[in-house]
Design goal:
With about 270 residues, the chain is mostly beta strands. The chain has two helices and 13 strands, in the order βββββαββαββββββ. Strands 1, 2, 3, 4, 5, 6, 7, 8, 9, 10, 11, 12 and 13 form a 13-stranded antiparallel β-sheet that branches.
């Protein structure tokens, strides 16, 4: 994490401070639209249905060095079926998702939000065409805490987080800091790839975090990915360009503090 500007004074070290036993219930919604441009014409392609899921995340323990151990469970999952989708097709897609509710996983997060040891084993009988997008979605969820800088910052601060594979940079700006709540503006950029198919992405969104929680209270990101492929048919070279628009939203549905549960007083 590289701080580009430390922001105004006073400056604060932003660190996660959840309590062991705290529980978040989270709703996640992901939707995709695809269009293709060829021979000067753009048309919409049939897009996969969106996905809506409810998760429960529990902080299982806090290690002596402050590392946060957590576990999560996928409670509910459904499709966001587009109008006009045949009922039989929608039912078949829902049947493919049937093995997923009950999925469990675990992970660890450092106080400055660095995620590690994230693990969730997808069911072996999951349809192959669902495995890759769900793995990517779980990977995104597992990295939710990587928005915090490792040095003190104030309002207006800007910092960036880089990932090597695939290469991308997320630039973050601190827009609000009130007690434990942090409001962030997010911008994502992945430069054009050097090999075919050539892809590049840009995205923007926002995030509200509470430092006594593990995952955000609110999160929203929209990303456009452009892919260009050289046509392989006979004749003059032509380019086929595909644009994929992804919108992901997360909201906290409820939060239970261990201080409000009777079991927290039993030792």
């Amino acid at each position: 994490m590289k701080v580009l500007h430390p922001g105004q004074t006073p400056q604060t070290l932003l660190q996660l401070r959840p309590l062991a036993g705290s529980i978040q219930r989270i709703a996640v919604r992901s939707e995709t639209n695809i269009s293709v441009r060829h021979s000067g014409r753009t048309r919409e392609l049939p897009s996969p249905p969106g996905i809506q899921m409810n998760l429960t995340v529990e902080v299982s323990r806090i290690a002596p060095d402050g590392e946060i151990h957590y576990r999560f469970a996928l409670d509910q999952m459904d499709l966001l079926v587009k109008a006009g989708t045949p009922q039989k097709e929608a039912e078949a897609l829902r049947a493919e998702l049937a093995p997923l509710p009950g999925l469990r996983g675990e992970g660890r997060v450092s106080p400055d939000g660095r995620s590690s040891h994230f693990h969730a084993a997808l069911p072996s009988d999951l349809a192959p065409h669902l495995r890759e997008p769900l793995q990517q979605l779980l990977k995104t969820l597992g990295g939710m805490g990587t928005f915090l800088p490792s040095s003190p910052v104030g309002l207006g601060a800007r910092w960036e987080h880089q990932t090597p594979t695939p290469p991308s940079t997320t630039t973050v700006e601190l827009k609000r800091l009130e007690k434990q709540e942090v409001g962030l503006k997010l911008e994502l950029y992945a430069p054009p790839s050097s090999t075919e198919p050539r892809t590049q992405s840009r995205g923007a969104g926002g995030c509200v975090m509470s430092l006594d929680r593990l995952w955000p209270l609110q999160y929203e990101l929209e990303v456009e990915t452009h892919t260009q492929v050289q046509s392989q048919d006979d004749g003059p070279p032509r380019r086929l360009e595909t644009t994929t628009h992804l919108r992901m939203r997360m909201r906290e549905r409820s939060f239970t503090s261990p201080l409000l549960r009777p079991s927290a007083y039993l030792r």
